[in-house]
Specification:
Layout lengths: L1 E6 L4 E6 L28 E4 L2 E3 L5 E5 L1 H4 L11 E4 L4 E5 L4 E6 L8 E7 L12 E8 L4 E5 L3 E2 L6 E10 L5 H4 L3 E5 L2 E3 L2 E2 L6 E10 L2 H9 L1
Parallel strand pairs: 4-10
Antiparallel strand pairs: 1-2, 2-14, 3-5, 5-8, 6-9, 7-8, 9-10, 11-13, 12-13, 13-17, 14-15, 16-17
Amino acid sequence: MNRIIIFSAAILAVIAVSCGRSRKEAGAGGAAPAVTIIDKGFSKYISAYTSGIISSGSTVQIVFTPEFAASIDKSKTQSLFSFNPSVKGTAEWADDITLVFRPAKPLQPATNYTGTLDISRLGTVEERLRFFPLSFSTIEKNFTVTLNPVSADLPDGDTYTLTGVLVMSDYADPSEVEKYLTVSAGKRAEKVIWEHDSNNNHPFTVEKIARQSEEREDSQTK
């Protein structure tokens, strides 16, 4: 869905293209993730893990108990994790007790993921506790646009400057963000100058927006 904001003073249109999608559209089977029951027996091996709603740019982390971590063969990092939907990536040790799965590319937004960690490949565990279940969801990707009042450029006031900020709900590559918003004055597309920070804020500026000829003619007749 497009949102069009028109400023009559400059006959300026700012078009923001929606990027959100529902969990149903993501093929995840519902609006909310299924509840995963964790066997209390896993507490002998694992003390913390990634769950809940996370950023699409997140890693999956497993923190083992110091006792179990001391017995782990840390050279084994292959074929430990499996996910649905499938996620390609690599596993590595962040420290003596923390195993991190790093996806090769950002996770899909608004998607429910389930998975398992094969603990038996790391050390000796009870047969019923061989596979540790994982369940998490990614944030739905969406954004808001805030526009500041259009200011006339001095000294003659024949052009305008527009500033604003596009705020993403989650991480998005700057090249992707820049596709979500266009600015036009009349039939002419205006150049949008972007700034991108690490907090999902994307300020933008449009400079030297010319007054439309119709507006100039109206002002001359008064």
